[in-house]
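re: ur question from earlier - yeah i can do the single chain one, its not a big deal. heres the input i used so u can compare w yours
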Amino acid sequence: MPLKKPAVILLSGGLDSTTVLAIAGSQGYACNCLSFDYGQKQTIELEKAGEIAKRYGAERHLILRLDLGKIGGSALTADIEVPKDGHTGQQDAIPVTYVPARNTILLAHAIAWAEVLGAWDIFIGVNAVDYSGYPDCRPEFLEAFTRMANLGTRAGVSGGTGFVIHAPLLRLSKAEIIRKGMQLGVDYSMTHSCYDPQGTKACGHCDACILRLKGFAAAGEIDPVEYC
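and the output i got, formated as tokens:
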């Protein structure tokens, strides 16, 4: 039996990244999950990521520690209130829950690990349809980052196949993502999306919760996680 092709999966423990892990597994990849303790104010998602990686048979699960809290500038890492009920917390279209350059930083680490593993494929759960307007979730960003990765790494310039960043959810609605995951047997009760959980319960009012709840409603399904 041939060895599975290795891939790095960015796994936050949320709905989208868990769906991406299921998609990569269904496509026959050997999944190496990468999560980050980056200074976020809650760590429930990391606990969930560990459980999900085990549940779906990841080859490895690596958790890297960064300290983006020292940089600040986001309601997810600094002493800034998480906006609720559709308020962005800022005057422009990009909400204060945006973490400065987060996907650039996380993907850079994913590329580094992929080099070590001999993997050319990186999976990320970004979405540019039902999302919060973050600039690092757009196809233009992913295309530019892929070019950079293949220009600035030993693997990229060695004449290999070149890195490919897979974003299978990029142009799907949240309802379509949920339907896809359910077809693949994803247990969404294991996932965590909330920016401001109260204990182990989701707040139900932050942007992540609102998008999630709307997605389940549009899919004709009930969200299995607990809300306040």
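The longest strand covers residues 29-37. not sure if urs matches, ping me
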